[in-house]
Design brief:
single chain, 364 residues, alpha/beta, Rossmann fold, 2 domains, 4-stranded mixed β-sheet, 11 helices, binds NADP nicotinamide-adenine-dinucleotide phosphate, binds ligand G4F
Length: 364
């Protein structure tokens, strides 16, 4: 039987790297679009890229950019994919306030370029769009599902809402097989270092090993529905295996504050925090130090009881915030048989163990 061919944008990102592993595991031929960069940007897929049994046999990389229409048309013609996963994005919400026009160019018009290339070339393919729980923004109901009205709160959310609707429009107008995955936050040891979870697990590792004295955070009260990224990437694939194209929410159904994520991260390394002060003056201090399996002897911990290890820096606040996200993925459970397995505390443990060992090994 002929191998299925997938084309992935954003292959060098967190989700792109896991999705590639999943598709290779299902015997796909995978084509990925990578951006030209002045330094290496393939770190997350180097284990595949450096494998001579995989590179240019099962996995093919092409230079490209979702802001370049002719490049996308050419790549679609050349690769003739059965499935396209559009994961490329300027994906940082806070950064989207600094570069709103570029964010729209990539996250909104980039999606249109792809859909239009499919229409123009007339190839028969299935299209997955990386939509987001940021569409819910100032949430209109709790929890959020496929029917919840949207209210985006950032240039990122506004750009992604265009992507969401243009997928539906092309599906209805031109009968394309195109789906939106409305994914809630999903994290992993491969998460970018400036997203809050990874920022916390890296900083806490560095603080305990004496490489950094404090972790500066923004809004500690923001609540997110955080899941484990590889499980969400499996869900993307499941959406494209359906008979008919539909949109699905993927979420864990639990929500936690940034403060809880921070507390639990320290706890995994044997540190109990206490919080003092309010809002911008809030601080996290070390209350108790215990032995723990990851660190071993508590004498290996550099900071002392009473040290302030977390502070608020209002520079990390957003002009408009998404206060709470919590998803209901009952539809995905019913139609895709998809649900999360990794619980919040397991996710924190996976991430902090990975970062602690990395900092210990590399020394930074
Ligand atoms: P990520 O780690 O930030 O990866 C983004 C990817 O897009 C990278 O490969 C990046 O390339 C690429 N990219 C950026 N601009 C591009 C352009 N102009 N042309 C081509 N490629 C470009 O994001 P992620 O967490 O894997 O998320 C994947 C997708 O899901 C994104 O669309 C994101 O908005 C969406 N999403 C993510 C979450 C989440 O919690 N992770 C939740 C909902 C939706 P470089 O490596 O060269 O920078
Ligand atoms: O980790 P974050 O930057 O992720 P955010 O804004 O929720 O966006 C992520 O998830 C979306 C899905 O809902 C994706 F569409 C998007 O591409 C991205 O992957 O921030 C999470 C929360 C926010 O409320 C933020 O204000 O953490 C709060 N926060 C508090 N201190 C911080 C910080 N966020 C960051 N990045 N850095 C801080 O120091």
């Amino acid at each position: 039987m002929k191998k299925k061919i997938a084309l992935i944008t954003g292959i060098t990102g967190q989700d792109g790297s896991y999705l590639t592993e999943i598709l290779l595991g299902k015997d796909y031929e995978v084509h990925g679009i990578i951006r030209r960069s002045s330094s290496f940007n393939t770190g997350r897929i180097d284990h595949l890229y450096n494998n001579p049994d995989i590179l240019n046999k099962k996995l093919f990389l092409h230079y490209g950019d979702v802001t370049d229409t002719s490049n996308l048309n050419r790549l679609i013609e050349k690769t003739q994919p059965d499935e396209i996963y559009n994961l490329a994005a300027q994906s940082h919400v806070k950064v989207s306030f600094e570069i709103p026009e570029y964010t729209a160019e990539v996250d909104a018009i980039g999606t249109l370029r792809f859909l239009d290339a499919i229409r123009e070339t007339g190839i028969r393919t299935k299209f997955y769009q990386a939509s987001t729980s940021e569409l819910f923004g100032k949430v209109q109901e709790i929890p959020q599902d496929e029917k919840t009205p949207f209210y985006p709160r950032s240039p990122y959310g506004a750009a992604k809402i265009y992507g969401y609707w243009i997928v539906i429009n092309y599906r209805e107008a031109y009968n394309l097989f195109a789906c939106n995955g409305i994914l809630f936050n999903h994290e992993s040891p491969r998460r970018g270092e400036t997203f809050v979870t990874r920022k916390i697990t890296r900083a806490v590792s560095r603080i305990l090993l004496g490489k950094q004295s404090k972790l500066y955070l923004g809004n500690l009260n923001a609540k997110r529905d955080w899941g484990y990224a590889p499980e969400f990437c499996e869900g993307m694939w499941l959406m494209l295996q359906q008979k008919n194209p539909e949109d699905f929410v993927l979420a864990t159904g639990e929500t936690h504050t940034v403060r809880e994520f921070t507390d639990l991260t320290f706890k995994e390394l044997g540190i109990e925090l206490e919080w003092k002060g309010k809002e911008q003056d809030e601080k996290g201090l070390i209350k108790k130090i215990s032995e723990c399996a990851i660190v071993g002897d508590k004498k290996n911990i550099i900071p002392k009881i009473g040290d302030v290890v977390v502070e608020v820096d209002k520079g990390y606040y957003r002009p408009t915030e998404v206060d709470i996200l919590i998803g209901n993925s009952a539809k995905a459970k019913e139609k895709l048989g998809w649900q999360t397995k990794t619980k919040f505390n397991e996710l924190v443990k996976i991430m902090i163990e990975s970062d602690y060992r990395k900092v210990l090994k590399r020394g930074y």
